[in-house]
Amino acid sequence: MAPRSTRSTRSGKVATPSSKAKGSKYFNKKAKKVEDEDELTEPEVDEDYEQEEDNDASDSVSLHSDALDDEDDFESIKPASSTKRKRASASPQKTPSKGTPKKSQERRKSSGSGSARKKRKTKGSEDEDDEYELELEEGQEVVGTVVQAPKTGRVPPGQISKNTLDFLSELKKPECNDREWFKLHEPVYRLAETEWKAFVEHFTDLLSEADPQIPPLPPKDVIHRIYRDIRFSNDKTPYKTVLSASFSRSGRKGIFAGFKPDGQSLIAAGSWCPGKNELATIRNNIKRSSRRLRQVISAPDFEALFGPAHPHPKGERQNIFGMEDELKVAPKGVDKTHKDIDLLKCRSFAVVYKFTDKHVLQPEFKEELVNVAKVMRPFVHCLNDLMTIPNAGDSSGSDDEDGGEPNGDVGED
Fold it and tell me: One Pfam family for this entry, by name (predicted)?
């Protein structure tokens, strides 16, 4: 009886009993041996290859097991030196066809593992409608795409652009003020941060000329971080919605500048909620003499910016009065009929001037800020003396003589 023929689909050749190639004899012999063990199944043969009868020496090399790839369909075949064949598994896995992409094979294997799969569009591709499947580990999900920094609307160093105000406007929204959103928009924030640092650097140079007590420190020493300290706060919002900085001879105490959209950008100066000892020193100096402080806050240019130097009839903020923490009654140990009771009721001593978005976007905005800071300078120096020097209220000399800065940051709003 003639031996059965075996066929190989890898090289596109068919081995027949009449072939004299060494590889054909090897496969015929093995086929007969496996046939006795009832393990050989004859593979399907592509009809397009059955017509080829070229059995030269090069074909025999391609059929030899030593020339086979470990990643092809003949992976289970052992080298010719092996005389035994391992028994096939009782439940063999289906070998993927040669034309199946590797990615499709991996997807087929992981189809039952419960891994999440998301479809995302590839950017920068020739066809934007082409989609690819992103393989994710179990528990992972796609939250969005990284937003690139805007290419238009840039401004020269020393100016604030609308891009920065737009970013802060988005950050104000509760659904945007979280770490995931901020991470996706980090390129936009980095551009706004770079723009803000350049503005502070130019503004510091001008401010140092207007007030020699303020040194020209680098931006990193005066700029406040955008990250909030939420350790002891009920508000767990992770980011501030304002870009801010403080300027003084000691660093971050003194004139405060904060930029916020919707007409909330401001420059402020003074002491916001000073400590117990500092507040007591201010009040003691005021009780001795309030002349210098009243002269400063009632100056025409000061009142033109911050309002008349007396409490507002309806309790609104005006000049240094009307702060949220202002006392409703006289402080302990002070007669409610004291001539300076309006000053002694103050818990904070600060003034605030706000700008519209239109002003902020102007090229000469930093010069406008410096003009306001010049009006604030006598108040800052006077307040610092009231906090540190006994009988400072009696001093009627120049503001620059013993001037200083307040010991406390001004609020951002």
Answer: DUF2461
What pLDDT score was predicted for residue 254? 66
Residues in contact with 360: Cβ distance below 8 Å, sequence separation at least 6, in sequence order: 160, 165, 259, 265
Condensed to tens digits (0 to 9), the pLDDT of residues 269-279 reads 988 888 899 99
Residue 23 is inside which H or E element, if any? Answer: helix 22-36
Tally of CB atoms within 10 A around 371: 13
pTM, to two decimals: 0.61
Please give the sequence-ordered ranges of beta strands (E in DSSP) within 156-298, or none if there are none.
243-248, 251-259, 265-271
- Digit-coded pLDDT (tens) for 136-175: 677 766 566 888 989 999 999 999 999 999 999 999 999 9
* Residue closest to 379 by CA, chosen among 301, 293, 310: 293
The tokens for 366 are 């930093």
Long-range own/partner contacts, residues 130-135 (CB < 8 A, 24 or more apart):
133/107, 135/106, 135/107, 135/110
Question: Could you tell me what percent of the chain has a pLDDT over 90?
Answer: 45
Q: Rounded to 5 degrees, what are φ and ψ at 223?
A: -80, 140
Closest alpha carbon to 13 in 2, 23, 1: 23
Regions of the chain with pLDDT less than 50: 1-3, 5-41, 43, 45, 47-92, 100, 102-133, 397-413
Q: What are phi and psi of 326, to 5 degrees?
A: -70, 140
Q: How far apart are the first and last CA of the chain?
A: 101
How far from the centroid of its chain's Cα atoms is residue 38's Cα? 65
Taking the CA atoms of residue 322, residue 324, residue 326 and residue 327 in that order, the dihedral angle to the nearest 10 degrees is 130
Structure tokens at 156: 């020269």
Q: Distance between CA 400 and CA 385 in Å, rounded?
A: 11
Hey, which residues does 135 pair with through a beta bridge?
117
